[in-house]
Structure formats: structure tokens, C-alpha cells
């Protein structure tokens, strides 16, 4: 059985925090593009192509 020491707990907490920060950064970066997709259905192709560039 694996022991949960203080060092392991600190590593797990730091790993979770880094993961959360990365997810938040990606969501803020792409927020405008994805919100445009859901707002308008007329120019979805143009928005998707602009994301892929």
C-alpha cells in the first residue's frame, strides 16, 4: 500500500493546482471564439476556420 506522506500530498496539491490553472488559461484564451460559435449560426464555418488557422 502506498503511504501518503506530507511530501506526496504537497505534490498532489501542486499538480491539481497546475492542472486547474492550465484549464482556466485555455478556457479564457478560447472563450471569445467558442462564445461566437454559440451566439450566431450564420458564420460558424468562418469562425471554425479562424480557430484552425
**Shape summary:** rod-shaped
Number of DSSP-assigned strands: 0
Mean pLDDT across residues: 79
Helix/strand-derived category reads: mainly alpha
Rg for CA atoms: 19 Å
Distance between the termini: 48 Å
Counting DSSP H or I runs of 4 or more residues, the number of helices is: 2
- Residue fraction in strands: under 5%
> What share of the residues lie within helices?
over 70%
Give the H and E element order.
Answer: HH
Low-confidence stretches: none
Main pleated-sheet profile: none
How many domains comprise the coordinates? 1
Summarize the entry for a quick read.
The protein is mainly alpha-helical and 53 residues long. The chain contains two helices and no strands. It has one domain.
Please explain how this structure is put together.
- This protein is an all-alpha fold and 53 residues long.
- It has one domain (6-52).
- The chain contains 2 helices and no strands.
- It has helices at residues 6-39, 44-52.
- The mean pLDDT is 79.
SSE inventory with pairings:
Blueprint: H1 6-39, H2 44-52
Supply the key terms.
mainly alpha; 53 residues
